[in-house]
Amino acid sequence: MSDAGMQHPVAVIIGMMGAGKTRVGREVSQMMGLPFKDADIEIEREVGMTIPEYFSRYGEPAFRKVESDLIRRTLDEFGGLFALGGGAPMTPATQDALADYIDGGGRVIYLQADPKEAMERANRGGGRPMLDGGDANARWMRLYEQRDPVFDRIANVHVRTHGSTPQMAARKVMNMIEERVVHVGVVSADDYNVRIGEGAMNHLAPVLGDKPARIALIHTQPVQRHSDRARALLRQAGYEVSDIVIPDAEAGKTVTVANGVWERLGAEGFTRSDAVVGVGGGAATDLAGFVAATWMRGIRYVNCPTSLLAMVDASTGGKTGTNTAAGKNLVGSFYTPAGVLADMTTLASLPNDIFVEGLGEVAKSGFISDPEILRILEEHADELRGFDGATFLGTPLEDVVAELIERTVRVKAKHVSADLKEAGLREFLNYGHTMGHAIEKMEHFRWRHGNAVAVGMVYAAELACLLGHIDRDLVDYHRSLLASLGLPTSWNGGSFEDVLAIMHRDKKARGNKLRFVVLDGGPGRMMHLDDPPADAVEEAFHRIQH
Ligand SMILES: NC(=O)c1ccc[n+]([C@@H]2O[C@H](COP(=O)([O-])OP(=O)(O)OC[C@H]3O[C@@H](n4cnc5c(N)ncnc54)[C@H](O)[C@@H]3O)[C@@H](O)[C@H]2O)c1
Ligand SMILES: Nc1ncnc2c1ncn2[C@@H]1O[C@H](COP(=O)(O)OP(=O)(O)O)[C@@H](O)[C@H]1O
Ligand SMILES: O=C(O)C1=C[C@@H](OP(=O)(O)O)[C@@H](O)[C@H](O)C1
User: Fold this and answer.
1) Is 86 assigned to a binding site?
2) Which residue intervals define the domain 3-dehydroquinate synthase N-terminal in the entry (predicted)?
């Protein structure tokens, strides 16, 4: 983020006196190998006296002018971590400078220490003219009541450090600095961001925006520890939370479950100023999105995906829905979230097999659009296949997975931004799904989605090769890469006739004609394959049977 020759801070820290802006800021700069600047120290250096001396000699207005001028200059010429003085953000000129900095992609981090802790620390050291005269605690609290709402509004990142040591607080700040953000454009509704990183869930309150009075927190039992954290964050931010546990996985993705939630919302008086938060795997976020899309014909919702597949695929793009007896995802709505918070700390409890199936959709995105994903998967296949949530966080693999998640979400964002309702381009996201969905149905959904899609991609590659669109080497590469990740590449669970009948009911089919999406030449180049020759469709099926 730099204009010609200019530098901008990696982050600016604001907060009350004693919040730890200097102490925590220095810790973060050391952890990240960045230079650190404290605005107060820079001001004293510039004016050649201490701040108390300057206050007594020239008064606060003169000080705020010097301070805002220095802050504006530093924002345009310093590339490290920059901590402001406690009162700085109250100055309109500084607020304008910070707004410009955020517009340029900057992060203004509001370090939200526990008021009692910060007040005690601020009054411990003295040398703070704003606390002089009278009861320092009372003065601190009065300043807090004035400043907190302003800081909350100005900052685009909020980090609560209640009860944290300087090192713990620094880690939280660093996670927010290292967070990845993918912007998703939406033609017919509001754009939104997918935030990926440890602590992404901290954005819940800012993303929900105007305080809805109530939040329906929809989640499943296996992610209870993560929904507990979401609930705590929401309640600390002042929301009323209705806790709604739904059946796990596909059992929770039904109209019956949705009806039970609608009943709850009705009984508790949910209105259009209220919102939904979905925490869990793709099935939970699909159901939560469907409830949000239908309650009063649409209320805001935020997805907090907790599985790899939900992070890279299900939570983004606005497809919400439920299954019916006739099949998966047959009832639903295109309805986009206010935001997606992919908090990587939730992966700590994700079982290995659920992580691995999510790699199927990651690989798919590599084949259809971003070959760099394939290279990363190939390079780290062993570690990825051996994923262990208990030891994952803080390891180099976490950075690899964060990169894969960001890249895969970018692929999805590109397709859904251009074609929300799947009229054409978005169908490329269905690579491997025609056969994949047939396998899921034939297996009565005992096969996980990502695993079925992996076999489906091998099938699509065989079909494309039979019709001369790709060479044999690329088909073999599908098998070798997917197998190296621990994904299946063949299936023997049913007859071609049964599979064919199901493929004819695929949403891409038109009339009695099958439609596939396949590679055209190589990774990143896709084409629609309409009504392929029947013998090729069958031969490709026999080639995925071991
Ligand atoms: N809307 C879309 O665009 C879209 C895209 C792809 C998939 N989907 C849907 O998503 C679903 C598949 O998503 P999924 O693979 O996440 O399956 P899932 O939601 O069934 O979750 C898989 C299992 O993992 C558990 N789990 C999830 N996160 C966990 C965590 N952090 N710790 C411990 N356990 C955890 C769940 O409780 C569940 O038991 C399917 O219903 C599919 O149709 C939707
Ligand atoms: N999270 C923390 N835990 C314990 N002590 C802290 C913490 N943050 C700051 N401190 C201590 O509190 C005092 C004030 O911290 P400082 O960084 O100067 O606050 P600020 O710059 O926000 O006014 C310092 O003595 C610092 O070491
Ligand atoms: O957002 C989309 O378009 C997708 C929705 C899902 O497919 P279905 O719509 O076939 O369920 C998903 O599995 C696929 O990866 C992409």
Assistant:
1) yes
2) 244-355
Determine whether the shortest distance from the Cβ of 364 to ligand 1 is under 6 A: no
Ligand 1 binding pocket includes 15 (Cβ within 6 Å):
no
DSSP per-residue string spanning 287-328: HHHHHHHHGGG--EEEEEE-SHHIIIIITSSSEEEEEETTEE
- 361-415, pLDDT tens digit by residue? 999 999 999 999 999 999 999 999 999 999 998 888 999 999 999 999 999 999 9
Ligand positioned closest to the Cα atom of 283:
1
Q: How far is the CA of 204 from the centre of ligand 2 (A)?
A: 26
Ligand-binding annotation for 286, yes or no, is: yes
ipTM of the complex as predicted: 0.86
With a 6 Å cutoff on the Cβ, whether 319 touches ligand 3 is yes
Q: Which atom of ligand 1 is nearest to the CA of 221?
A: 37
pLDDT of residue 439: 96
**Ligand 1, atom 38: nearest CA belongs to which residue?**
249
pLDDT in tens, 168-224: 999 999 988 989 999 999 888 889 999 999 889 988 988 998 776 899 999 999 999
Domain boundary among 150, 177, 204: 177
Q: Identify the CA nearest to 312 among candidates 358, 369, 356.
A: 358
Which of 154, 177, 200 is the last residue in one of the domains?
Answer: 177
Residues 167 and 45 in one domain: yes
Residues of the chain with pLDDT under 50: 1-2
Query: What does each C-alpha distance from 340 to 93, 400, 406, 506 come to in angstroms?
Result: 33, 20, 12, 28
Which residue's CA is minimally distant from atom 16 of ligand 3?
429
CATH number, domain of 124, equals 3.40.50.300
Number of domains in the chain: 3
What is the domain-level CATH number for residue 224? Answer: 3.40.50.1970
CA distances from 62 to 24, 133, 178 (A): 28, 20, 36
∠ CA 172-376-280, nearest 5°, is 50
CA 162 to centroid of ligand 2, rounded, Å: 12
Decide if 482 is inside a domain. Answer: yes
| 177 secondary structure, DSSP code | H
My answer on whether 166 and 299 are in the same domain is no
